[in-house]
Amino acid sequence: MKRIRFGIIGCGLMGREFAVAAARWAHLTDMDCAPEIVAVCDANAALFPWYTDNFASIGQTTEDYRALLDNPQVEAVYCAVPHHLHEEIYCAVVRAGKHLMGEKPFGIDLPANDAILACLAEHPSVFARCSSEFPFFPAVGRIARMIESGAFGRIIEVGAGFLHSSDLDPQKPLNWKRIVRFNGEYGCMGDLGMHVCHVPFRAGWIPCNVRAVLSNIVPRRPDGHGGVEACETWDNATLLCDAVDPAAGETFPMTLKTQRIAPGEKNTWYLKVLGTRASARFSTKNPKRLELLEYDGGEQVWGQIDVGCETCFKGITGGIFEFGFSDAILQMWAAFLYELEHGRPPSRFAGCATPEETALSHRLFTAALESQKTSTVVSMYKGENQ
Questions:
Q1: Together in a domain, 54 and 12
Q2: Nearest in space to 15 (alpha carbons), one of 107, 67, 82
Q3: Distance CA 216, CA 256 (A)
Q4: CATH assignment at residue 293
Q5: Is the pLDDT assigned to residue 65 strictly greater than 70?
Q6: 26 and 72: one domain?
Q7: Do 22 and 122 have their domain in common?
Q8: Is residue 195 part of a domain?
Q9: Are residues 11 and 146 in the same domain?
Q10: Distances (CA, A) of 36 to 18, 23, 359, 385
Q11: Which of the four pLDDT bands, split at 50, 70 and 90, describes residue 297?
Q12: Distance from C-alpha of 1 to C-alpha of 142, rounded to nearest angstrom
């Protein structure tokens, strides 16, 4: 099996998740390539022992990402750093000729995203994708096959969202995601939005315009040192868009939600597609359940299917068993390495979010900020209010 040697820049939660996914690679039965963690980098050296204690392959630990990029052993990089560092470090990774898996939003704002994509255009041999795990749940794979086959008929409406309640407690101390200079003005859209946009964008359901309602529900939070500071970023966002179905050329409403303060939601990703011939609903709140309605002129009845481990990339777990978040991460990384090695994903929806899809998300979120500011519908194409 071919080994692709990785460096990790940003050794926090998601860096550890990738490392554990690499350790579980034997779970996948049909892969002809695998990741090997050889270097890690973080400004906090206290994070290094967990990596070196668990991964004998690591030969370099450094607090300077430039040193990692100078390491000839490193072929590819997973970069999981705060948003304000994306442009600087992503571009440095690309210029160093290392393949890149970056975290969303792939730049703190539209100019930063433009700069990253321009850098990629100058280095066409570098393969780059953006992290987005949730579309790899098996039920979403079934919805994807319905989209590809035209099973929905004319699209009536689409809804997608990412909801959690981690900021519901007003006494939770401020962190970098609540500060504009680190997180960016998008707020929750930048942090959660690529997950929400991934499947609609891959389906070709591109927003024509947006009317956004953004909420800063807890404007001040404890600073963790006995004081209180402004909580600057948007907590919740609801985006109502006109989108076009490329299969029929028809327009339909699409609602995209990103919320950090959603009572009752631990960490929920959902997708709903309503069509004239069929409809489907899925939520990670019940990760086995896919709801389907097929309409042939008779009664309209929602049915439920328990979906097991029907994964894009085959694994040792039997199809009858449940699928979870760590499985989605493993599937996403399999998609990254498969496309890196083979030049294309195994199917249209079995691929990671592309830089071009991140660019579209930035255009949408930038328009959403303007819509909130002006209380108008903002065009995605002309930058004009409607």
A1: yes
A2: 82
A3: 17
A4: 3.30.360.10
A5: yes
A6: yes
A7: yes
A8: yes
A9: no
A10: 11, 9, 30, 49
A11: confident
A12: 30
Write phi, then psi, for 313 (nearest 5 degrees): -115, 120
What total number of domains does the chain contain? 2
Residue 341 lies in a domain: no
Pairing, β 2-9 against β 76-79: parallel
| CA 332 and chain centroid, separation | 10
**Rg value, the chain, Cα:** 21
- The number of residues in the chain equals 386
* Contacts with 76 (C-beta within 8 Å, 6 or more apart), sequence order: 4, 5, 6, 7, 35, 98, 99, 100, 101, 127, 340
One-letter amino acid of 189: M
Q: List pLDDT tens digits, range 12-34.
A: 999 999 999 999 999 999 999 99
pLDDT in tens, 124-167: 999 999 999 999 999 999 999 999 999 999 999 999 999 999 99
The arithmetic mean of pLDDT across residues 316-338, rounded, is 96
Q: Which amino acid is at 377?
A: V
List beta partners, residue 143.
none
Instruction: Give the C-alpha separation, 313 to 222, whole Å.
Output: 44
Distance CA 312, CA 295 (A): 28
Last residue of a domain, one of 130, 161, 177: 130
Q: Would you say residue 324 lies in a domain?
A: no
Residue 355 near residue 132 (C-beta atoms within 8 A): no
Last residue of a domain, one of 83, 102, 130: 130
Per the structure, the complete domain to which residue 123 belongs is given by 2-130
Integer Cα distance of 25 and 312 in angstroms: 15
